[in-house]
Amino acid sequence: MGSRVRALAEATPDTRDRYVDLLRVLSLGTVVLGHWLMAAVTADGVGNLLAVVPELQLLTWALQIMPVFFFVGGFSHALSYRSLRRRHPAGDGASPYAAFLRARLRRLLRPTMVFVLVWGAAALLVQLLGGGGGLTGVSLRLVTQPLWFIGIYLAMVAFTPPLLKLHERYGWSAFGALVAGAVLVDVLRFVLGVPFVEFLNFAFVWLAVHQLGFLRADGRLRLPSALAATGLGGAALLVAAGPYPLSMVGMPGEKVSNMAPPTLALLCHGLWLVGAVELLRGPGARLVARPRVWRGVVAANGVAMTAFLWHLTAMLGVYGALLAAGVTLPEPASAAWWAQTPLRIAAAALLTALLVAAFRGFEQPSPAPVRPGSGPLAALGITLCLFGVLGLSMVGFAGLLEGRTATLIAVPVSAPAAVATALAGWWLVERSGFAVRRDEG
Question: What InterPro entries does the entry give (predicted)?
Answer without folding.
Answer: Acyl_transf_3_dom
